[in-house]
Amino acid sequence: MTGQSRYAGLTANERLKVAGLKAEFDEAAHSRSRSEMIRILGQVDVSHAAWLVDMIIANPRRHGY
Questions:
Q1: What is the pLDDT of residue 2?
Q2: Residue 47: phi, psi to the nearest 5?
Q3: pTM summary value
Q4: Measured distance CA(43)–CA(19) in Å, rounded
Q5: What are phi and psi of 19, to 5 degrees?
Q6: How many C-beta atoms surround the C-beta of residue 24 within 10 A?
Q7: How far is CA 63 from CA 1, 6, 24, 25, in A?
């Protein structure tokens, strides 16, 4: 795959599941570790990681945390 992420077309949540990082991300989210959440999302090529993390931290119940 040249120039395209292996995660193309997947949501952030789907990417985390495919990469086996969902539990790790959930743990970071429950502890509100912004930097750790962003780091994990970066591993699955989420370009809007900081924005997504800020949304989760601002309203965790809405996002399942």
A1: 52
A2: -70, -25
A3: 0.88
A4: 9
A5: -85, -5
A6: 16
A7: 32, 25, 16, 13
Q: Which two tokens stand for residue 17?
A: 């599941």
d(CA 56, CA 1) in angstroms, rounded, equals: 31
Spatial contact of 15 and 45, defined as CB atoms under 8 Å apart: yes
Q: Residue 14 is encoded by which pair of tokens? A: 């789907």
Determine contact, residues 36/20, Cβ cutoff 8 Å.
no
Domain layout of the chain by residue ranges: 12-63
- Residue among 2, 1, 19, 35 nearest 10 (CA): 19
Which stretches in the chain have pLDDT values below 50?
A: 1
Distance CA 15, CA 44 (A): 6
Q: Tally Cβ neighbours within 10 Å of residue 62.
A: 9
